[in-house]
Design goal:
Blueprint (H helix, E strand, L loop, with lengths): L25 H9 L6 H26 L8 H34 L3 H20 L4 E11 L7 H13 L4 E4 L2 E2 L6 E4 L2 E4 L2 E3 L3 E6 L2 H8 L5 H7 L3 E12 L17
Antiparallel strand pairs: 1-7, 1-8, 2-3, 2-7, 4-5, 5-6
Protein name: DUF881 domain-containing protein
Pfam family, one: DUF881
Keywords: Membrane, Transmembrane, Transmembrane helix
Amino acid sequence: MSNEELPRDQERPGEQQADVPEQLTGRQRLIAGLWPPRVTRAQLIVALLLFVLGLGLAIQVRSNSDNSALRGARQEDLVRILDELDDRTQRLEDEKQRLDDQRTELENSSDQAEEARKQTVEKERQLGILAGTVAAHGPGITLTINDPGDAVQADMLLDALQELRAAGAEAIEVNGVRVVANTYFSGDGGAIKVDDRSISAPYVFKVIGKPQDLEPALNIPGGVVQTLEKEQATVHVAQADDIVVDALRPAEQPDYARSSSQ
């Protein structure tokens, strides 16, 4: 029999059978398509957007949890707090408008030097009130704290002071001591000092400001009045059309700072 007549599946002597590609199963083809991963630019952008969205949701959830303290408040308390925030916003808007008007006057005044002098005098008066070097009077409240059990601590009086400042108090006097920017309270109940000067109950705060803002700020839920009453102290707030704050501080000369105009 000739070579041409041999069966095709039989190798001729000296010849090697050609390699046949191995057939892959379905699972192997799936694995080969997924690994190693091929990340496109579009997939990276989508992943980044999903991360930013998740971060925003987490921040929103945390912000909502921080406001949980107000969820248990009564409706009238929430309305009062909202009104107080609106009043503070309005005060800031009024201050901005006043400064804008001053700038306009300086720009349009025919005698800018005289206008600047007037504004300088007015600013000096305002700074004198803040520094406690000049007396002041105006509408406000008188806050009287009686402490028969010597339970009122220095930090409670400081909280009352800070709450009044936040509500727009412009001048404050405590038991004959003028309150300034660096005023502090120290000591224990019954032996409290303000700026290293001893004071005793009743503690009387004479405050100049808008009474309709000052009194509600003291009576917010969990605020100054409720905290003091828990210590068996009695608190009385009286509004007045004219409060006089005449306790003065001596003008202090700085040891090192000098005006940059010199």
